[in-house]
């Protein structure tokens, strides 16, 4: 058996190559679930513990025992920026008066970008998005209003106050969400904050 990586990743579908063997091999593991993908000659192993012990048997005979460390999935890089809808709206025939209103002109974009190696080797386990966060409008350094969007998106047009030039938007991220190979959502704490200034 040869691992595709030096370590396994917890709660992810790790693929190990297995050689062609005569006779029926049986695979089992402690600290993980194991499935044999015969057409691709791969062992699909999903760690549930920090240490995984993999056993290979032919009949009652133990052929191999391998121990692996399992690490948590790497945190994604959270990015946050202001998108300017002015040009897009004008190109689409939008009303200039509407475009000049900061609440309608600007949008806050949050993105969770997975680590490059993780995304390349385990793309179906590296699907991230920003989960819970808080947006606070600061004017003159003082908080004006705070909101906690429920759906992971920030619609500035829904704010209860009208934004002004030079207002600051304090975005505080509490967690990110990862969708695994089964389509299950896993929340991971991720404390980050960003300050964005409303342009003139």
Query: Stretches where pLDDT falls below 50 for ≥5 residues?
Result: 88-100
Mean pLDDT figure: 86
Number of domains: 2
Structural class: mainly beta
Shape: rod-shaped
Tally of DSSP helical segments: 4
Order of helices and strands: EEEEEEEEEHHHEHEEEEE
CA(first)-CA(last) distance: 61 Å
Rg estimate, integer Å: 24 Å
- Major pleated sheet: 5 strands, antiparallel
What's the number of extended β-strand segments?
Answer: 15
What percentage of the residues does DSSP assign to strands (E)?
A: over 45%
Oligomer: single chain
In helices, the fraction of residues equals 10-25%
Protein name: Gliding motility-associated protein GldM C-terminal domain-containing protein
Pfam families: GldM_4th (PF12080)
InterPro entries: Motility-assoc_prot_GldM_C
Domain Gliding motility-associated protein GldM C-terminal: 109-192
Topology record:
Blueprint: E1 2-3, E2 8-9, E3 14-17, E4 26-30, E5 32-37, E6 42-47, E7 51-58, E8 61-71, E9 77-84, H1 86-91, H2 96-100, H3 102-105, E10 106-113, H4 116-121, E11 127-130, E12 133-139, E13 142-147, E14 168-179, E15 185-197
Parallel strand pairs: 2-8
Antiparallel strand pairs: 1-3, 3-6, 4-7, 5-6, 7-8, 9-10, 11-14, 12-13, 12-14, 14-15
């Amino acid at each position: 058996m040869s691992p595709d990586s030096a370590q396994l990743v917890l709660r992810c579908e790790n693929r190990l190559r297995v050689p062609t063997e005569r006779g029926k091999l049986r695979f089992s593991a402690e600290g993980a679930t194991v499935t044999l993908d015969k057409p691709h000659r791969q062992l699909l192993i999903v760690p549930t513990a920090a240490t995984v012990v993999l056993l290979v048997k032919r009949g009652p005979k133990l052929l191999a025992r391998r121990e692996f460390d399992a690490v948590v999935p790497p945190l994604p890089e959270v990015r946050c920026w202001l998108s300017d809808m002015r040009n897009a709206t004008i190109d689409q025939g939008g009303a200039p008066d509407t475009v000049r209103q900061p609440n309608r002109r600007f949008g806050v974009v949050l993105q969770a970008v997975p680590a490059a190696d993780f995304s390349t080797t385990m793309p179906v386990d590296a699907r991230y998005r920003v989960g819970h966060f808080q947006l606070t409008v600061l004017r003159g350094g003082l908080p004006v209003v705070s909101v906690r969007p429920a759906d992971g998106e920030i619609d500035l047009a829904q704010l209860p106050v009208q934004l002004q030039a030079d207002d600051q938007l304090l975005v505080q991220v509490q967690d990110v969400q990862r969708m695994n190979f089964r389509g299950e959502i896993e929340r991971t704490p991720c404390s980050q904050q960003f300050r964005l200034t409303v342009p003139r």
